[in-house]
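This week, think about what follows.
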Amino acid sequence: MHSNNQPKTVLYSLLGVFFFSCVTYINTHITPPFLLSKGIFSNGADSLELVEMLGYILAGFTLTQLVNIVTNKKIILFSIFILIICTSSLKFIYDYNIFRLNFSIMGIATYSYLTITVLEIIEFSGNKKSLSLAAVFLFWIAGHFTVDYIVEFLPILMGHFLCITFYILSFIITLLHKEAIIKNKLSTSKFSWLVSNIELQLLTGFMISYVTLVILWYYEAYALKEQLALSAPWLVQHSMLKGIFFLTLPLAWLITKLNKYLANLILIITLLVSFFLLPIYGNDININLYLLYVIGTCLYTIFICNILILADKFETKDFKTASLIYFTICAIGMYAGALSSYISFDIISDQGFLFSVYSVIGTFILYYLWYFFRHRLYQK
């Protein structure tokens, strides 16, 4: 690819991230009433989300093998095409099993689009990977905030139409991309070598994805039982996104100046301390808000640190494969969070939320400390 095409390709990809963010946020608003109109209630809706997460995992394992023999552009175009078909067909589906199949396919396409788009942005960012990753989050959050201003005026059918429209816009701007053709199938031995060299990043990705899912699914019930100041899911999500939005650029700059392994360790400990303080000071609305800012910012920064560590370790096709393995483990972490948190929340009553978080983060900190000093990561 010629260097003068790189900024244009990154901009097109970022616009795609913005459109896709709008679609996902619109879907969070129109899906519940849409499913109710089809006779699918809350338990069935949760089951559909789990099926969609399984689609993420399946897509991750598949793309890991395909990413270096199929171009980014083909994967992105095919993913959007599948999403347009599946989204259009939802209106005409009434059988629950077909709904499950449809959501699973949409999960595969969603994962494929987002991961390949992010990798494409990094691939054409040169030495500005940190800034480009910050831009991805800024465009993603901007999509959410944009929908905030129009969502109350969106009936189900209009929201459904807008989702399809945004997918079509993403399809069109993808057609404007320049392709970078890389064809090199990954050997089994090389795959094993990659996994062994990103062990800590994989475990970190699992942890932050697990915690993120637990917050989005189970924080509301916990906050209501504990009578915390903030409990509405949309407010919790907005608080975390606002913290990320305002700190994205300075953090992206700071990460490039620090030892990323040490930064991750500090962030993970800060994350655990924030959850410890939540039940103690969460009744104060301002402290509750600040703690959610910190939690969201820590999760975001750890995610960015891991990708930058992978970018430092590998180049070209090895980086793409390692990143997809990382994203796949993140998807598994989300699915594990949905299952295990549900069990722990039922068994341990209102403390199940914190028990789940403490167990995962606390155990991981002990392992991270051992790994950090055992491999002298403080010298990196």
